[in-house]
Design goal:
- By secondary structure, the protein is an alpha/beta fold.
- It folds into two domains: about 5-250, Aspartate Aminotransferase, domain 2; about 255-385, Aspartate Aminotransferase, domain 1 (Alpha-Beta Complex).
- Helices cover about 35% and strands about 15% of the residues.
- It is built from twelve helices and twelve strands.
- A seven-stranded mixed beta sheet has the order 1-7-6-5-4-2-3, with helices on both faces. It has a five-stranded mixed beta sheet with strand order 8-9-12-11-10, with helices on one face.
- β2 (about 100-105), α5 (about 110-120) and β3 (about 125-130) form a beta-alpha-beta unit.
- The longest helix has 19 residues, at about 255-270.
- It is globular and about 75 Å long.
- Its cofactor is pyridoxal 5'-phosphate.
- Keywords: Lyase, Pyridoxal phosphate.
- This is Cystathionine beta-lyase.
Length: about 400
């Protein structure tokens, strides 16, 4: 069969070759073998290939989702984890040992940094950060650097990284390049095809798409897969068949949903950039964004995320009073579902330099599937209240 892409691929990945249109939910902990010989043979084979043997090792439903994500990411194989953070934590432990150093983009998801401080340091693993606002990331590497961990676009302000350039340096130095691809959701951005060794996606977000499931997925090149599989088994990482089914179902409409999220977000980003109360809009698909050129080169689409910096002279109290009166935007920590959300950004956790200029209040928006004009009207009420006082 010829290779499919986009919506066509999403209707076919992770499906049975015959029979059911959707992979059924398979539940079970104990797998029964035909004989002791069959049991012994399976235990040997499962060290090198995927075999049904025990519920903690997966089943037909979870395997179907692994295969689907591997196909979309262009990777060798994938492993599923109960949350996105679990996927990140196990990945770090899978590829790093005492004495190793991991260099992390300062634009990475905040809990990654907390994991390094609270857990990784206790295992004798060194970590440090590089600024995504500078181009000296290679100079930040150490003789014992074994992993470069990036998120592109970066968390909160959507900093784009030159992944092919990073991959070239990492390959020369035998360093694993690991990329958080939650923003790209396997479809809009594909780190493995740009040279990364490991791609991590929080399936909680757009892959599930309906704000009803928690999950993380790690996809790798063949050369480095054995380590993440071994760590997954050793840390007892497993997801339920019901959750795998929900993400598989979400994949079927992923392309269509992302198109709607992206169209609405870009329209609103352009409109917000023209408002007097707004100083800066961060959205890589928006012309003028610092990462726009890399986004055009490396991405095939966008999503519903954007961040807004309000004019510095507007007080926090006024802005938050207006936020509390929004009607269509919920206040929530996640994103990637059908609903629109807002959440304040702590400037100390972003790549804005407080020393450079006085910065205004930062607000992250997730533009959902509501009517764009109704979302604009809701935001316009917020902006009007800031401009008229």
């Amino acid at each position: 069969m010829s290779k499919r892409s986009g919506s066509t691929a999403l209707t076919r990945v992770g499906r049975p070759a015959t029979g059911w249109a959707n992979t059924p939910i398979v539940k079970g902990s104990t797998y029964l073998f035909e004989s002791l010989g069959h049991w012994r043979e399976t235990r040997v084979k499962r060290e090198h290939e995927r075999m049904l043997s025990y519920g903690a090792r997966g089943n037909e439903t979870t395997y179907a989702l692994e295969d689907a994500v591997s196909a979309l990411e262009g990777g060798y194989r994938s492993k599923l984890f109960p949350t996105g953070l679990a996927a990140i934590a196990v990945t770090l432990m899978a590829y790093l040992k005492a004495g190793d150093h991991v260099l992390i983009a300062d634009a990475a998801y905040g809990p990654v940094k907390q994991f390094c401080v609270s857990q990784l340091a206790h295992y004798g693993i060194e970590f440090s950060y590089f600024s995504t606002a500078a181009d000296d990331w290679a100079a930040c590497m150490r003789p014992n650097t074994r992993m470069l961990y990036v998120e592109s676009p970066g968390s909160l302000l959507y900093d784009m990284q030159d992944l092919p350039a990073m991959a070239a340096v990492c390959k020369q130095r035998d360093i694993i390049l690991c990329a958080d691809n939650t923003w790209g959701s396997c479809l809009s951005y594909q780190p493995l095809k740009l040279g990364a060794d490991v791609s991590i996606v929080a399936a909680t977000k757009y892959l599930g798409g309906h704000s009803d499931v928690m999950m993380g997925v790690v996809t790798t090149r063949e050369a480095v897969f054995a380590s993440i599989e071994a760590a997954s088994v050793n840390f007892g990482q497993v997801v339920s068949a019901e959750d795998a089914f929900l993400v598989l179902r979400g994949l079927r409409t992923l392309d269509l949903r992302l198109q709607r999220h992206a169209q609405s977000a870009l329209s609103l980003a352009g409109w917000l950039a023209q408002q007097a109360a707004v100083r800066t809009v961060f959205h890589p698909a928006l012309p003028g964004d610092p990462g726009h050129a890399l986004w055009r080169r490396d991405c095939t689409g966008s999503n519903g995320l954007l961040s807004v910096e309000f004019a510095p002279g507007i007080s926090t109290a006024r802005i938050e009073d207006a936020i509390d009166r929004l009607e269509l935007f919920g206040i929530g920590s996640s994103w990637g579902g059908f609903e629109s959300l807002v959440l304040p950004i702590d400037v100390k956790k972003t790549r804005l330099s407080p020393a450079a200029n006085e910065t205004g209040y930062l607000l992250r928006l997730h533009i959902g599937l509501e009517e764009p004009e109704e979302l604009k009207a809701d935001l316009n009420r917020l902006l009007s209240s800031l401009e008229t006082r």
